[in-house]
Amino acid sequence: MEFSIKTEQLQPQNNSSLLFVYCKESKPKHHIANTLLTQLQQQQKDFIATHTVKDEFLQALAVVSIDKDDYASIQKLTSTVASWAKEQQLLNVDLSMLPQALTQKWVQAFTIAVGEAVYCFDKFKKNSKPVLLEKINYQTDHAVSTYLSKAEAIIYGMNICKDLGNAPGNICTPAYLASSAAKIANDLGASARIINETEIQEMGMNALLSVAQGSSAGAYLIELQYHGSPNTEDKPVVLVGKGITFDSGGISLKPGAAMDEMKFDMCGAASVIGTFAAAVKLKLPINLVAIVPTCENMPSGNAVKPGDIVRAMNGLNIEVLNTDAEGRLILCDALTYAERFQPKAVIDVATLTGACIIALGHVAQGILGNNQQLIDQLLQAADSINDKTWQLPLFDEYKEQLKSNFADLQNIGGRPAGTITAAAFLSYFTESYCWAHLDIAGTAWQSGNNKGATGRPVPLLLEYLILQS
């Protein structure tokens, strides 16, 4: 699908459709559009679509009336319009009656909405339905190219995240995730390093290896680097993503119902890889590193057992009381590994706790960390792009729940405040830098008839990187 910006009046074509976007102050010159806008206002609606006859051919025509100009409201409206737009072949969007700020918001939100509407993961279906929509032309005199480029990058990153997340566990194995990430980075001109299990062992990343030891799929540490800052000495932002390509729970086995959805347990990794790709595609003037520890969590005669003690890369001994709390075990070694980059900030992303779903549902992702300025910057980015995020506290008192009789700490803190104690566990491995943790357990994928990866929080992460560039 292609997007373009036109300054001249768009001319109708045999296969084209027209979308007129108006606001309260608009005075349409197009007769039929003006009639439809009046009808919308009388009915207190915001979108209407019809067909007209133009030069002996039928043309689809739609009108949008923007009532609220905040980004969240525009985003909601564009999702409705995108459902209509995806059924067109060539769409001309007339934005000539909008002021600049509103035009910029519409171009960004509508481009993302259309990208989401046409997305389909059908590579394993014999009869796949091709996307009908080929091109969208925006007619406007305003400066919107930056917003269009950002929106296209967001869709690019979200589609990478979705494709990786939706792939079944027998396809998207740790090795597949590693090779896919490397190919994506190399194709964009960035660098990739795939660290194998032997090197992981030599570095003392035993927490990661303890999770991987129950599976024959092995463990990998993915390291992607992009140097876009004109100052080579600028400290990088480091993104860390949980890459459990299938999570059975290990010896602490999960219930069978909906266990197929545990292929989505690597959506933190997928979102980090997608964000990295989007940032490189935009050629952001920053230095960026992505780190992904990846393996499976499976039960076997070799699997880690409840009560086992493992020594993490930073020297702390961890008592594993629940093998289904494995995400924090692979992340803790990756977070220690991140120290070597002397980072400006480290942001980890993980489908970490079911407790986050209990707390926030499937609307907002949770955020915690050790640096309020970093958290505020991420919350600002979340608000700007409407990728809903909510801060939870991380008081030292929560660490009391992680005390072990036999090791430096244990990997679970009981039922109370499960999302917070998971972050408190990670905080033991992030003391040397500014760190934020995003728990996306409730937002990384949808269940039911619309089952599939959502691509979140790629919009939030890319918006944050743009604001930092």
Automatic annotation (TrEMBL):
Entry's cofactor comment: Binds 2 manganese ions per subunit.
GO CC terms of this entry: cytoplasm
Cofactor: Mn(2+)
Entry EC number(s): 3.4.11.1, 3.4.11.10
Similarity comment text for this entry: Belongs to the peptidase M17 family.
Binding site for Mn(2+) 1: 247, 324, 326
Species of origin: Snodgrassella alvi
This protein's name: Probable cytosol aminopeptidase
Active site: residue positions: 254, 328
Cell location: Cytoplasm
GO biological process per UniProt: proteolysis
Gene3D superfamilies: Leucine Aminopeptidase, subunit E, domain 1, Zn peptidases
Reactions the enzyme catalyzes: Release of an N-terminal amino acid, Xaa-|-Yaa-, in which Xaa is preferably Leu, but may be other amino acids including Pro although not Arg or Lys, and Yaa may be Pro. Amino acid amides and methyl esters are also readily hydrolyzed, but rates on arylamides are exceedingly low; Release of an N-terminal amino acid, preferentially leucine, but not glutamic or aspartic acids
Residues at which Mn(2+) 2 binds: 242, 247, 265, 326
Signal peptide: none
